[in-house]
Each structure stands twice: as structure tokens, then as C-alpha cells.
Amino acid sequence: MKRALVSASYLSLIALQTIWHALLPSPHGAESWLLAVVATIPLLLPLKGVLTGSLRSMTWAGYLVMLYLVVGAMEAWANPPQRITALTQVFLVAVFVGSVLAFSRPVRRS
User: Fold this and answer.
1) N or C: which end of the chain has fewer CB within 10 A?
2) Which region among 3-12, 26-35, 42-51, 79-88 has the lowest average model confidence (pLDDT)?
3) How far apart are the C-alpha atoms of 27 and 81, rounded to whole Å?
4) pLDDT tens across 58-77, in order?
């Protein structure tokens, strides 16, 4: 269950980057495929390890998504037309980090 939540939130974050930057028009002009590629490629680097449940890959992905947390918080604060999408990004990062923390805790058996 925890591993599925880790994978789902990470894949959703990748999908959100593509949709947000490539398909949704920005308030200042047309969509940008170049920005979508630049925003998505770093998330693809630890993807295999995240999907297989490698704790090391999930840890590195957790460090990486902190950048997306900062960008989402700044966009939500400074760009009202993009607020819902930016807060969605912040939410997905929080779910990913929380589920990685839950996944990494050992299960106590009594």
C-alpha cells in the first residue's frame, strides 16, 4: 500500500509537470514544450528505482522533489492564475515525501 502511494504520487508529479507546462496555457502566452521537458527530465532520473521500491532512489527522489516544492510554493504565492496547479504540485510533493517516510520505517511485529 505504501509503495503504491509512493509510485502513484511520483508518477502524478511527472504527469503534472508535462500537463502544466506543455498543455495548459500560461497566463502570459502559449504553452512551452521546452519548459515541460526541462521540468520533467530530472524527475525521470530516479524513476526506475522509485517504481521498484529502492529506498536509496526514493531518498534521492525526495531530495529532488524539494525543488518542486519550492517552485510550487513560489508559483502559488506569486502567480494567482496558476495557484491551483501550483498547490496541486505542493500537495503531490507532500504526499510523496510522507509516503516515503512511512515506507522507510520498519514494521514492528509483536
Assistant:
1) C
2) 26-35
3) 7
4) 999 999 999 999 999 999 99
Domain ranges of the chain: 2-104
Measured from the Cβ of residue 90, the count of other Cβ atoms closer than 10 Å reads 17
Q: Which residues pair with 26 in a beta bridge?
A: 29
> For 76-104, what is each residue's pLDDT tens digit?
999 888 899 999 999 999 999 999 998 88
Distance CA 85, CA 68 (A): 12
Which residues face 72 on adjacent strands? none
> How big is the CA angle at 20 (ends 62 and 56), to the nearest 5 degrees?
15
CA 58 to CA 99: how far, in whole Å?
A: 10
Q: Residue 57: which residues within 8 A CB-CB, separation 6 or more? A: 46, 48, 49, 50
Whether the CB-CB separation of 9 and 92 falls below 8 Å is answered with yes
